[in-house]
Amino acid sequence: MNGLTTQFGYQPGNYYELRLPGLQMMSVAHVAQYDMDEPRLRVATLNSWKRELATHDVGVFFEATLTHLDLLSHYIQAEHRRRQRDAMQMASDSLEQDIQTLQKQIEKDEQDMLRMLRETKVNELNDFRRYFGVQSQLILENLAQWQKEKCKEVIDDCGWDKPDYIRDASVHSFPGSAVLVREDEPTSVIAYTLSSNEYVQELMQEGQSSNKSGMVTPNVAFLSTPGAQLPVTGKNSQVLDRYCSSIERKYVSPTASTETSSFRAMIIEICKSNVSEERLEDLKNILPWTKKVTEKSSTDEQTKELMATSSVGNKKGHNGSLHIQHKFVHNDVEFTCIVYYANEFEMLRRQCGVHQIMIESLCRCQSWVASGGKSKSRFYKTQDDRFVVKEMMNVWNVSEKDAFLNFAPKYFNHMKKSRQSALAKIFGFFTIEIKKKESSLYLDVLVMEHLFYNQHITKKFDFKGIVERHVGEYQKEQKDITLWDGDWLNEYKTKLLVQNKSLFDDTIANDAEFLSQCNIMDYSLLVGVNEEKREIMIGIVGAYTWYKKIESKGKSTIKRVVTIVPPGEYKTRFCKEILNNYFVPVQGKFDMSVKTLLSDKLTPC
């Protein structure tokens, strides 16, 4: 009797669900428009900062001053007991009365300070910080003077640990914002610009007519310490607190030698001050390193740089500008932040729901050494781990910055058309410049989402569709190493089975096709394994540089192993290998049958 023999095999494996990047686009219809009264950061964060100012800064300061007065009072009482002569007794009684008067005055000052804080808008907490810095210093000076005159035997000062924005000259509390600018944390310059009143006003006013003659029409903003009298403007007026600010629109005509000589570029320049345009020049003259010759040279370089970027993809005509330049000066430090494609990125951030969170995150950053890539760029990561900041470099005589500025309009269109995307979202492109007498910093940076934010990732992989890529055995022992294609295929593929794979195949293929059409190659599929949640996080990274085409040609010339191929070939290999061969699918609730998955070969995109 003929029979049918069925053989079953068993191999242990864990099921993991594939996850696209967490930040996806929402419909434009659900996006709120710009509003001057809208909090620039999340309300909960701003209120938290306000409470911290009340309890930690103001509260601790007045607690320290009252404690110091108590110590002086105890000292005087001890002197009472030590010296019993009548004259000294009368003097001691007088000092006690003085201390009681000082205590009442300080308690009143504290209530006035807290009232001032309550009345300060959450978007403008720096105004209060500046006021508090001035008033606290005045109180301490008065207390020290009284102590010197009436109680000179006591040499100890008030033991108050000042906040960094008062103590540290490299931390700046510019008016009209809640964001502190820290010279050693360059992303705070971006956060301040995006949160400033002037920047939001420019976003709201885009499209209005500008002066076509090329003349500057200043719109002066007066930004003063709360309670302080506004300065009187005039030729003889001095710069208040050595801040400067003005708003102006300019046309910048390209020279014949530039590649964009056929375009007319308009740049919006924002310079912050609480004084007039004349006084901005006064402050520039104060800066000890500023010379007439270097000013002209610097302006020419900046003009060339902005000419190329303003014309790319500009459909607004001569009445609008794609980029905003923000300058602000405090004491001897001059800051510049250029926001490229300001409105486009603002809308993108709003569609992904991060327009407030990103500013909040960029307030603090730290250097970060990214593993897995060959880029020599500097990386930063926000302290809350939400965003990655990558420096754009010049490689093989090709500027990553120029490449991205040409790529950006296509990127915006792709993001608008795609309901879902595996691309790691790019939320802004900026130039940061910090100029001091003794040093300067210049950075072109991209701000991107951190794919593994709030994830406990135990293993990371970088896929390019090259099965021969392996990390060296000695490197595998290193902490936080990113493994490659061959490591996954040999050691992890059959152990980490994936659900819902069919949902992501079309998304990745669509993104790869877009990148190919943009002549982009050498991107990677970054994969992170979260064993706690049984999830595999994926996202396409490195998708914004063009210089790799030159690298491929250079490698073939010197007969090295060529890892970079033309965009079309790279896309075909990327999709064919990764989508067909890298993951072992098991059926999830959104998948077609496993049988269909295994039998249906994906057509390379």
Label the CATH architecture of the domain at 323-590: 2-Layer Sandwich
CATH topology label of the domain at 323-590: Phosphatidylinositol Phosphate Kinase II Beta
Largest sheet features: 10 strands, mixed
Spans of at least 5 consecutive residues whose pLDDT stays below 50 are: 207-240, 246-280, 288-319, 546-562, 593-599, 601-605
User: How many angstroms separate the termini?
Assistant: 50 Å
GO molecular function, one term: 1-phosphatidylinositol-3-phosphate 5-kinase activity
GO cellular component, one term: fungal-type vacuole membrane
Keywords: ATP-binding, Coiled coil, Kinase, Nucleotide-binding, Transferase
Protein name: PIPK domain-containing protein
Topology, please?
Layout: E1 14-19, H1 43-82, H2 86-119, H3 125-150, H4 164-167, E2 171-172, E3 181-182, H5 187-195, H6 197-205, E4 243-244, E5 246-252, E6 265-272, H7 277-286, H8 292-311, E7 324-330, E8 333-340, H9 342-351, H10 355-362, E9 365-368, E10 379-382, E11 387-391, E12 394-395, E13 398-399, H11 400-417, E14 426-435, E15 440-449, E16 459-463, H12 473-476, E17 482-484, H13 485-491, E18 496-499, H14 502-517, E19 524-530, E20 535-541, H15 548-557, H16 567-581, H17 594-599
Parallel strand pairs: 1-18, 1-20, 6-7, 16-17
Antiparallel strand pairs: 2-3, 4-7, 5-6, 7-8, 8-14, 9-10, 10-11, 11-15, 12-13, 14-15, 16-19, 19-20
